[in-house]
């Protein structure tokens, strides 16, 4: 079994229209949601073997809130995770060494939502949480997918079930 943790970056600021998309920082609302999500994940005992983070400023700032609880966990900041395609994200995840049992990806939509939906497309029965994820994966949203595979190369449509979905809205933010 492999565990795939998706955390979408928190809400970014659009205050400076001159900034390139990759350079946009978190908005104040994003900082609040990042801190709240980190607190909830810490309380739930988040444990991962690897962290992959897009090089976008907003994803790095989102990661900063989780950093204290991930001490000692290998972290990779990758420009190739600054993607909006589920296929590209899937390709990257399939490259993970099989010795890694769980990975946290801090990235972007629509790639994360589309991939999560594809990986869980055979989940039966569908749950209300899965219907929610299929409808929207909000900023600072967290999803844990449990994948019925032993090798990351086997990651593909229908191999996972949604175990957990947490949205800032669930935290009254």
Short description:
The protein is α/β, with parallel strands linked by helices and 173 residues long. The chain is built from five helices and six strands.
Q: Could you please describe the fold and organization of this structure?
A:
The chain has 173 residues and is α/β, with parallel strands linked by helices. The protein has one domain (2-10, 21-171): 3-Layer(aba) Sandwich (Rossmann fold). 30% of the residues lie in helices and 20% in strands. The protein is built from 5 helices and 6 strands, in the order βαβαβαβααββ. It has helices spanning 28-43, 57-66, 86-94, 111-119, 128-135, and strands at 2-8, 50-54, 75-78, 102-107, 142-147, 160-166. The protein has a 6-stranded mixed beta sheet, with helices on both faces. The model has no long low-confidence stretch (mean pLDDT 95).
Rg is: 15 Å
User: Structural class per helix/strand content?
Assistant: alpha/beta
Helix amount: 25-40%
| Main sheet attributes: strand count, strand direction, barrel closure | 6 strands, mixed
**Bulk shape:** globular
CATH architecture descriptor name: 3-Layer(aba) Sandwich
Total number of strands: 6
Strand content: 15-25%
Which stretches are low in confidence, meaning pLDDT under 50 for 5 or more residues running? none
- CATH superfamily label: Phosphoglycerate mutase-like
CATH class: Alpha Beta
Number of domains: 1
Going across the biggest sheet, name each strand in turn: 3-2-4-1-5-6
**How many helical stretches?**
5
Order of helices and strands: EHEHEHEHHEE
- How far is the first residue's CA from the last residue's CA? 33 Å
* Mean pLDDT figure: 95
Assembly state here? single chain
CATH topology: Rossmann fold
